[in-house]
Amino acid sequence: MVEITKSYIPAGTPARPGYPMDPTGVTIHNTGSSASAKNHMLYMTQNGGFNSTTSYHFVIDDINCFQLLPITENAWHAGDGALGAGNRKTIAIEVCECGDIKKAHDRAAELTAYLLKQIGGSAQHNVFQHAQWMAKDCPRLLRSGRPYSWSTFLDKVTQFMKADAPAPKKEPVKIPEAAAGSVYRMYSGADHLYTQSHKEAQYLADLGWKYEGIGWVAPADGAPVWRLYSGKTHLFTADPVEKKRLLSIGWKDEGQAFVSGGSRPIYRMYNPYSGEHLLTASLKEHDAATKAGWYCEGQEIKY
Ligand SMILES: [Zn+2]
Questions:
Q1: Residue 234, strand partner residues
Q2: Which is the most buried residue in 135, 226, 290, 293, by most CB within 10 A?
Q3: What is the CA(142)–ligand 1 centre distance, in A?
Q4: What is the pLDDT of residue 164?
């Protein structure tokens, strides 16, 4: 979002009549001068600009954006009279003609989108050229296609209104703490990870991994099962020869994950297309995965 610096014109001056306003639109101007937003702000607030009946709500260039009036008060900018809809119902933005004018106009489009979201309305129906209120070639740059056409400017406003829409909030997943020995099963969408650490499981869930439940409850004593990482996927093995071979081709040793012991099998499944591995204690899942093209790489791990 464009950073707005509030620097209001002194109240009770000709430039700030203070008529209450319930804005229904935004009017775009070009300044018609080479002065920066900062110089316009200084002129309006300190150097006598407040003595004239010309004013505006915002002035913006490629670097700064100043707000000179609250949007709940009118400005004298449209030239359509003391009771004119331009003056009394629209927020005035002066876009400077100095510096990077494309950037200045992009920023003005973003500011316009931000204002429209507050007051309601659309780029097509609630954004006006100064020229729509009186016979004046303003905003003169946009009207002559610099840095782009008026319709492009309106399209940008629409895009900013969409881009700024708040992302739909995802419910944060709180993984319940399970009994000692439980193996939390996590899925990134491309990688299955099994951990006995509730803290790690929750950390991954916060990163967007899916919690798929407790895989099984590992025994307290038994043979070590190591966790290895290829840089893309995790693999769990109780076989020291396999571990050594994978480390020799660049897999990373992430330590002992849990232990293997008992008589019930954990099936290790491999997806030859994606390279993923899956551990499951469910024969039903083993069968479904096999049917879907996964290989069963064995049942060395027990619980
Ligand atoms: Zn104008």
A1: 229
A2: 226
A3: 11
A4: 59
Going from the Cα of 162 to the center of ligand 1, the distance in angstroms, rounded, reads 27
Reduce the DSSP state of residue 134 to 3 states and report it: coil
pLDDT tens per residue across span 246-287: 999 999 999 999 999 999 999 999 998 788 999 999 999 999
Report how far ligand 1's centroid is from the alpha carbon of 164 (Å). 27
Give the model confidence (pLDDT) of 193-239 as tens digits. Answer: 999 999 999 999 988 889 999 999 999 999 999 999 998 899 999 99
- Domains by residue range for the chain, with CATH: 5-163 (3.40.80.10), 182-296 (no CATH)
In angstroms, the Cα distances linking 181 to 9, 226, 265 are 68, 16, 16
94 Cβ neighbours under 8 A, 6+ residues apart: 29, 30, 31, 40, 56, 58, 59, 60, 77
Show the tokens assigned to 159. 């895009």
Residues with C-beta atoms within 5 A of ion ligand 1: 29, 130, 138
Ligand 1 geometric centre to CA of 139 (Å) = 6
Long-range CB pairs of 207-213, under 8 A, 24+ apart, other chains included: 210/186, 211/173, 211/175, 211/184, 211/185, 211/186, 212/185, 212/186, 212/187, 213/185
Span from the CA of 138 to the centroid of ligand 1 (angstroms): 5
